[in-house]
Design goal:
eight-stranded mixed β-sheet
């Protein structure tokens, strides 16, 4: 018999009754019924009930074992009586009568319980993550993560993609976030950067003649935490393809994502491929965001013109100054009480807006604060533009476009949820396409890249030379699901001359491009194929399929919101010898004293 187990804790069934078995696992629960002591033993595969009589010489040893102690139990598999069968467990028809026990590792008093559904704070959970990971829900999330990655790998290789690994120690790259730097011992004063993404390397693989690349890539960005973003590091399905158009990239990744989501959706519906495509500017107009949640059926409309020189003076004056007006329909809103509108108006004010005006369309009339002050032909134009009918209401947001779009997006979601319109049990995918190549920095007034600096501009060199930079579109695209960006990608710029021109327009001279991207630029000068790809986020995919609101619930060892590893105590200080070896000196920030200090 094996030293530790003949079966797992989730394996024993009725057909094993009257046979001898040995299992090993953690003490999940103990129940003392007087003459009998029941011990639930748990491993990754399940849970088996073990029982020992008070008359057994082993009773005291089993009784002394605290929860989460590791035991090896040997005994006879016994069929449970009809009234003690546990239908909730696959092993619930049998139990092991303990005949021998070995305490492999005794547990101390637990700082947090593993059994049960008690909630614990983030600090204690991350400090004792090894205990937290034993808890059923989190344990299953991490197993689900492994299954999803396995499925993704299989689907990618089935499509002819080859898995590669790219360097972790590399050069800094302007990906839009702060780098993590690693000092070089051999090169004083110089630093490696941990890759924000394998962007340049995967493009170099295409230039090297490989046709279809992918990897489950670790990426490192010094960013603040959010519910859907872990600080420090994350993983993505990074892939690239040679000799492809944008449509080819879409056709390659859509069946992978659709297939994985269908496989793990657990009865939730999934948008079938091909996914809907929405131009960036259309998305900002209809949804106020380039990450629209299509479970929300409300679509916004621009109604700036009906308010221009209108009788509703507040909006008319703002429009004259350059503001825009977005209409947000509220289907069935006319039947709502006044408190419904007041509640949304109060929310708008609390959000920093002046309010949320509205029109109620009922009985052939336009009612409400705006409806009373707006000419009939203008309310009719709004009704037609928004597609609403009698019985509906329309809310309005007015302001500078850059301010009104994010507020209108929040209002759209708020109204949707107040009306109970959001579709449940669904994964709604879409592509956001035709991103602007450049944007204007509001603070500096300078042109800068809006999305990915390595993208091919639509129209190529001719567009860069003849068009207003803010009018140039790029072959850039995102996949969005339920309001969460899952994937960013682009058809890449594979020509050195176009790359130098594009970077020059964003304020990077040729010497900067040569210094920062000389390796890739030089490769382009020796024959580079047209290529493109994308990088869906693994952590976010798992988070959605696990139905978890926070990304830390699908990462085995995440950092906390302050980017600290409480289990391994990182980041930590370095001793003087280590700093000297790396030619570094720590200069701590000055502490500003207050009058009370």
């Amino acid at each position: 018999m094996h030293q530790y187990r003949t079966h797992t804790c989730g394996e024993l069934r009725l057909e094993h009754a009257q046979s001898e078995a040995r299992i090993s696992g953690w003490v999940h629960r103990k129940r003392d019924h007087g003459n009998l002591l029941f011990v639930d033993l748990r491993d990754q595969y399940g849970l088996t009930q073990c029982v020992i009589d008070v008359s057994s010489p082993l009773f005291a040893e089993v009784e002394a074992a605290r929860p989460e102690s590791v035991l090896t139990v040997t005994g006879t598999v016994v069929e449970r009586s009809e009234d003690t069968i546990n239908k909730a467990l696959p092993t619930g028809d049998v139990e092991i009568a303990i005949e021998a026990v070995v305490v492999e590792s005794a547990a101390q008093v637990l700082p947090m319980q593993v059994a049960g559904d008690a909630e614990f704070g983030e600090d204690i959970r991350l400090r004792h993550r090894f205990l937290d990971l034993r808890r059923e829900k989190l344990h299953n999330n991490i197993l689900l993560r492994s299954q999803i990655i396995t499925s993704i790998r299989r689907r990618m290789t089935d499509q002819g993609f080859t898995e590669f690994q790219t360097p972790i120690l590399t050069a800094s790259s302007p990906e839009g976030a702060r780098d993590y730097l690693v000092p070089s011992r051999h090169h004083p004063g110089q630093f490696y950067a941990l890759p924000q993404a394998p962007q340049q390397f995967k493009q170099l693989l295409m230039v090297s003649g490989f046709d279809r690349y992918f990897q489950i890539a670790p990426c490192f960005r010094d960013e603040d935490a959010r519910a859907d973003r872990s600080p420090g590091e994350f993983y993505q399905l990074d892939f690239e393809m040679a000799f492809v158009t944008q449509d080819d990239v879409f056709a390659a990744i859509e069946p992978v994502l659709e297939g994985v989501f269908v496989e793990f959706a657990d009865e939730r519906t999934v948008t079938p491929a091909p996914f809907p495509r929405i131009a960036y500017r259309e998305s900002m107009l209809k949804y106020g965001s380039d990450k629209p949640d299509l479970r929300n059926p409300i679509e916004m409309t621009d109604v700036t013109e009906p308010f221009r020189d209108s009788g509703f003076g507040l909006f008319a004056r703002n429009v004259e100054k350059g503001s825009v007006v977005r209409a947000i329909p509220a289907p069935g809103g006319a039947d709502k009480p006044r408190s419904f509108f007041d509640k949304l108006n109060d929310w708008a004010r609390e959000s920093g807006a002046g309010g949320l005006g509205y029109i109620i369309f009922a009985d052939g009339e336009a009612r409400g604060p705006i409806g009373k002050n707006l000419e009939a032909e203008r309310t009719a134009a709004i009704k037609e533009a928004t597609g609403v009918s009698d019985g509906d209401a329309v809310f309005f947001a007015c302001g500078e476009q850059k301010d009104v779009e994010p507020f209108a997006a929040q209002a759209r979601d708020r109204i949707c949820d107040e009306l109970g319109l959001r579709e449940q049990g669904a994964f709604k995918f879409c592509w956001i396409i035709d991103y602007p190549m450049f944007e204007m920095d509001d603070d500096t007034g300078k042109v800068e890249f809006s999305h990915n600096p390595f993208s091919m501009p639509q129209g190529g060199m001719e567009a860069l030379e003849s068009m207003d930079p803010l009018d140039i579109l790029a072959y850039q695209y995102d996949i969005v699901c339920n309001g969460i960006e899952l994937c960013s990608g682009a058809i890449r710029n594979h020509r050195a001359d176009i790359m130098i021109k594009a970077f020059d327009m964003a304020g990077y001279g040729p010497e900067v491009v040569e210094e920062k991207f000389g390796g890739m630029l030089n490769a382009f000068r020796y024959g580079a194929p047209p290529h493109g790809g994308a990088a869906p986020g693994i952590d976010r995919i798992v988070m959605m399929l696990a139905d978890e609101p926070n990304i830390r619930e699908v990462i085995a060892f995440p950092l906390n919101q302050q980017a600290q590893d409480l289990l391994m105590v990182a980041p930590g200080s370095a001793d003087d010898a280590h700093l000297k070896e790396l030619h570094l000196k720590v200069v701590m920030p000055k502490v500003v004293k207050t009058d009370d200090a």
